[in-house]
Amino acid sequence: MLYPQNFEQKIGFQQIRELLESYCLSPLGLYFVRRMSFLDRFDLVQRLLLQTDEYFRLMNAGADFPVQYYFDVNLHLQRAAIQNTFLDPQAFYEIKMSLKTIRASLTFFADPEVETLYPNLKALGANVLVERALIAAIEKVIDDNGQVKDDATPELARLKRDLIAQQVVLRKQIQGILKHAKSQGWVNADAEPTIRGGRLVIPIIAEHKRKLKGLIHDESTTGQTVYLEPEPVFEVNNDIKDLENAYQRELIRILTLLTDYLRPHIPDLKKAYQYLGLLDFIRAKAVLARELNATLPKLHKQPLIKWKQAKHPLLFLSHKAQQRDVVPLNLELTHGHRILLISGPNAGGKSVALKTAGLVQYMLQCGLLIPVGEGSEAGMFEDIFLDIGDEQSIENDLSTYSSHLQNMKQFVNFAGKKSLVLIDEFGTGTEPILGGAIAEAVLEKLNNQKVYGVITTHYTNLKNFAEKNQGIVNGAMRYDHKQLQPLYQLEAGKPGSSFAIEIARKIGLPKEIVEKATTLVGKDKIRYDRLLEQLETEKNALEKHNAELEKQQRKLDKAVKEYSALKDHLEESKTEIIREAKGKAKLLLKETNQQIESTISQIKNSQADKEKTREARQQLQEFTEKKVAPEVKKVSRLADNRPLQPGDKVTLIGQDSYGELVGIKGKTAEVLFGGMKTIVKLNNLERAAAGAAKMKPEKETASGSGRSNMNMTSRMADFSPTLDVRGERAEDALTKVMAFTDDAIMLGIPEIKIIHGRGTGILKQMIRDYLRSQREVASVADEHIERGGDGVSVVVLK
């Protein structure tokens, strides 16, 4: 049941219906749009929605589905059903082309793969039959321009040939006569043959009409020219007329036979065109769904509304045309909270929220997809009752309130557990105290009848009633009380304030009037509204605070994660470095012994020759400087694991130059490198080997070391986390990757990127094999597809 009778106009559905009509391809679809109505059968509504959803997906998939030649031929079929009648060529053309569309649609859904994707659309054509022989018979007679083919029958072809031959003869004869008349000056120099009364004639100047024998068929409006059929072409014109009559008789005979052949197929054809009309109708619904960004919610048999991000369809389309956004609503009516009582300031969106509920639910139960977000759920209602006080005439106040009372009578008498009641500005139209009392009584009755509903009001007694009674929940349209601007956001769980006094003060109403109104309203009402205002302010502040806390928490979680990863990395690195150092020490000892033995052997073999001995000692010295000293220095660095303190001699990890630690602040340190203070991460420093200062000449310390430290500091600042090795030889690329990775590990970079391109994949594989073999590498993955995909490796370091 729908109430009132003009429900569609009140709720705005008539405009939705007009939009659907504009999306139809033919009157076939219009027929179903105009018959569309509110349904309360779950299985039927579900089937209609699934059909629309399947067509919507079919369109979005870009499927090659026929959408041309949706002709409405029902009038042609009615004419063809009468014995001894025939259809004209244009009618047969429309039948032929539309039958091809129907057959192409059936063939499309006959594909087994397609059938599984669109089962409900496939089912539409289950009983539709289009004989291929019928299309072939029409095709034999009618071409794709809607004309009868010249070779439709042998007789028609012969008549056509004879007709063309006689017309050629006629043209030649009349051109000869016209040429002679021009030479005599009887006709104008630019005159040409023309048709009058179906016969070929020539235009002659009126004063010379007696100079040429023939029959005058017509004259010009001025009377200066007459149209004369020369006597020599009488017979040829007669022959052409006879041939045209014969051709027309043969044409009628062919069309009559074709109509007779069509007549037995008319019952099947009516079903086929009903199918075509349904496809047109469903397509229009799918186009509307695309315009509204509509979806298919999860359906329930019982009454239910759980809509996320719902939008008023007409408001959405209007704003879309203006490139503006609509504030969506989250609307929920469940068994425990059946009635939503919405309050708030005027022009705050209360009526829009109510109309959104009514229009969207009505659309759903008419088989239309609705503009709600993913994860929404919707149920079925048997009735929708609507009371919207659209009349604003002061002179009509009494009749307006009487109308409201009449509506309330219908609601309390007929609304039940499966009814949706929509009431706008509940209780208005009469004296506030009495109107509020009646409204509260009606609300209590409706709540006892377990109806579902959305009700808007300004009355405080109704807000208080909702707070105290189960089944009813307050809702507020949020409002920025500082700017006095509506936010158009619906919030369930609390009532809203009308902000009447505040708005009056904001727009500049005289102060004494505002104060007088405040006095008249009373302290309790003002206190109540101010409490709501304060709650709104506190809510806004709390939301901002919570958002900031969430942001800070995310930063903290990230920092903790990075710290834990760095700590684990350092522990692993320490163990690995010590193990590696021990291994290198053993190898170095072995190489040193071999070098010493080789030196002794050289001296013995040269019999202590001075020159040979000097060379051997020189080789040993070079070996010591190159191999032994650096390794001893590294091992000595590892030996001292005491925490760094101000005053310690330190070096950057992996560097030989040293400086003095001036101070430590948290995870950073201030270091004096060659007279220049630098801020570095504490984790990037290590204690310098004993006697390091003495190993460097004074001059080098003052110049070279300073430059080294400055270069290192610059390198840390300028380090780029992205390396591009595209076009490099494999060995060169791998060398760069090794150095790049080592630098990143040393500087504590958490993530780096290596651009290697796709190519044959060999370079990518070689680089990734190396990276995955390194302990310090946590993971290697492809970059996002929009930023290079598998042509870029994203490396996360431990």
Walk me through this protein's architecture.
With 798 residues, the protein is of the alpha/beta class. It folds into four domains: 2-151 and 258-287, MutS, DNA mismatch repair protein, Chain A, domain 3; 298-521, P-loop containing nucleotide triphosphate hydrolases (Rossmann fold, 3-Layer(aba) Sandwich); 640-718, SH3 type barrels, CATH 2.30.30.30; 720-797, Ribosomal Protein S8, Chain: A, domain 1 (2-Layer Sandwich), CATH 3.30.1370. The protein contains 26 helices and 24 strands. Strands 1-11-12-13-9-14-15 form a seven-stranded mixed β-sheet, sandwiched between helices. A five-stranded antiparallel β-sheet has the order 19-18-17-16-20. α2 (13-23) crosses α12 (266-292) and α9 packs antiparallel against α11 (234-262). The longest helix has 83 residues, at 523-605. The protein is flat and about 145 Å long. The two termini are 68 Å apart.
Would you count the extended β strands for me?
Answer: 24
Class based on secondary structure composition and strand pairing: alpha/beta
Number of helices: 26
- The share of residues in helices is 40-55%
What separation lies between the terminal Cα atoms?
Answer: 68 Å
What's the average pLDDT?
82
The CATH architecture of the largest domain comes to 3-Layer(aba) Sandwich
Largest sheet: 7 strands, mixed
CATH fold description of the largest domain: Rossmann fold
What best-fitting shape do the alpha-carbon axes yield?
flat
| Radius of gyration of CA atoms, rounded to a whole number | 47 Å
Name of the CATH first level of the largest domain = Alpha Beta
Could you name the CATH homologous superfamily of the largest domain?
P-loop containing nucleotide triphosphate hydrolases
Strand order of the largest sheet: 1-11-12-13-9-14-15
Number of domains: 4
- β-strand percent reads 15-25%
Uncertain ranges = 391-398, 635-639, 693-710
